[in-house]
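User: I'm designing a mutation panel for Caspase domain-containing protein and want to avoid disrupting the core. Could you give me a predicted structure to guide residue selection? Please restate the sequence first so the numbering is unambiguous.

Assistant: Good idea. Sequence first, for numbering, then the predicted structure tokens:
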Amino acid sequence: MARRALLIASQIGMLSGCHKDLDIMSELLGKRGFSITRIQEGEATRAGIIAAYEDLIATTVADDTVVIHYSGHGEQSPISGHQYILPTDFAESTNTDFRGITAVELSILLARLTQKTTNATVILDCCRAAHMSRDPDVVPRARATPSTLDVAGHIDRLPPDVWPKDLPDPVSNGNAVRLVACAPHESAYETQTQDGDWAGALTEALEFTLRSQGNTPVSWLTLVARIRRRVSYRPASQRPEAEGPSRRLLFDIAEETVRGLLVTTVGRDRGSVRLEGGRILGVAAGDRFAILPASAVGPGDTPPLDTATVTAVGATDALAALENEAALPAGARAHLIATARRPHAVAVRAGSGPGDAGWAEKVRTRIGATSLLQLVEPDDDETLATVEAVDGTIGLRDAIGPLVAPRAAADSAAGWVVDNLVQLEQVATVRELESGGGAEALPDAYVVEWGRVTAAGVAVPLAADGAVIAPGDRTYVRLHNHSARDLYYSVFSLDAAGAITLLSTASPAGERVVPGGTHTLGVGPAGTLQGMEMVWPPVAPPDAPRPESFLVVVTPQPLSLAFLEQQGVRRGRGEEVPPELSPLQQVFSQAVSGGVRGAVPLPGPTPYAVHHLGYLLHPQPVPPTPARARSPLVDERPEWSVRMTDARPGAVPRLVVRVDAVTTSRTWVEALAVAGGPGGEPVGQVRSLAAADLAGTALYDGPVDGFVDLGVWLSDDRTAPDLLALRPDPDPDLSGRPAAAVAADAWIAAADAAFDEAEGAYRTTLVAVDGFGLGTHRVEGVGFALTYTVSEEPVA
């Protein structure tokens, strides 16, 4: 029974953490007895990856344990919707020689592998959607502009004797656990580790969690919950998931059995016990356990020998106090009967100024007085926020930056900052709420939709996570009820400053939606769609994007959840939830109060579903789109936020965007390329020439700071205005990258509007966070095709 691991890194574009991922996984798996096959750089081509996978299949026999880990870019074709990974030679792709590896091909390889062994694990630290990150030092593992190559044609051309498409896909393959970095609509990111290296957020969190787990046997389902919380503390908006047979123990086919935690030792006074299971199993201080004989299946199977409450928690074990100090037999096990709210970690850092250490200690004392927060060291990067007592001030920051302006150190400031920590903790806890399971699962058919409202009152739907919203934007939330009974939904805003606000105030117990009906939050009194205006939290400095979300709760009956709002009196943690609340209200009340919730199903459960609609609130408003005479035949620009994202610091490269071939019935081509320049000043270059002479022409050749915005127009004669003279004046309210991006967009829009006869053919933006799209691009529109190459060349 051999243990084998195939580790693949495709470190292309702006990625720089893929090789570090392989270092991490080589060490982790090597210590667990795996023999490692590692391919990267020139070996990680399409042919090299497939050959290594084929070797793995050939050498695998029954009962072997196999792991495949991929680190790199993922992408989805905007034309066919097919997903694929990008090997290191992907830039050499053509429509007849696709160098990516599609999800179809990966599924077939995995199916063939699991025909040899039933113990396979696939870890994918990549994604297929590029959104803006929370931090300029976090890079998405998807390109900003997906390729327009003919992926569907490539799949159709696969020889069926080599690539049989009737094998199980990953979803139905019950012999492989799949640990994925994010949901299909999200981005996966790489971020900076404590030692200064770059690594995938998933791989880094997996390393941390496995090290803290030690030898405790846990399932992938349990492990991913810990991974998910650690990733949530990093400046990367993604939700890792464990798919397939996720109740399997790590790298095993045996599944986790819920038989309680083993009671390993008893204190000398018989008043305390040690439980074999700690943070890695989700145990928290305040949890209550029934102590049962080893033969018992669970609570209710037999009267408990005693009841224990957890008083201290380590990574792999916990200390609990016995209520009756009963004598316990060997092999007794602790079964969870009530859960306490999991505290979020916070840190306090003292500066070197006079009095800083004293004020830091006062803040620590106040934090210790609330069990909603867990105090950790300042260098612990798994923290919700950090208090800074520096130079006679007390401030608060998170992984993104300052949350509020610091105040002069005083007793009132110490209390103020801890109150803010509690608010942030409550928002973080509410963001972790999940839909009901089992008898509490909502079976009804419905759709939750949300999006942006245009100035004309048109709804533009957005993805459930990853959208970028700016102050002044208007949004809506909508529920379509496809079930046979009434449904009710409540909507809350969870903002970056820790506020929880009920938005569906007209119906505090939930907006009613009749069978077959639709209700929209954001409709004005006259029945027109107006939307809800987005605002920047008044206390947060507008210096970086901030993650926020809408919380949508759906139930089959009216249910008031107004107590989730941050305003009002808070109950202290550990207090029992008031009995006047319904069982479902108790579930949500515990989320904000920290009260104890029973783990055994409550009588008469109410089904419910929870939806989190996440977005980044960007301090810079998205500029209005100027009126254009026409839309381009092909528009490949990434979303606005990506165009304003700063790349990692480094030298400004010289880029050349050169035309390889063009096909058009028109005779003349006009092009305007605008690049980011120093100090937010855009730099433009114009090309105007006959279509027959376009091949070999550089549409742009020069230094680039952040992006190149490109517009191409076609006409039958040379009638172009002076495009360089159309350069707009800078926006006095903007600076740096946003200023250059806004100016570039306005410049090309002005050029487009100035043409009388020319037809807008092509628009794109090459961005630094995507490695400027180095390689060959082919675009096709109606009666138009263009092939061009982006290269980085020595500075002239």
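For picking mutation sites, this is relevant: The two ends are 59 Å apart (CA to CA). Confidence is low (pLDDT under 50) at residues 129-136, 567-579, 597-603.
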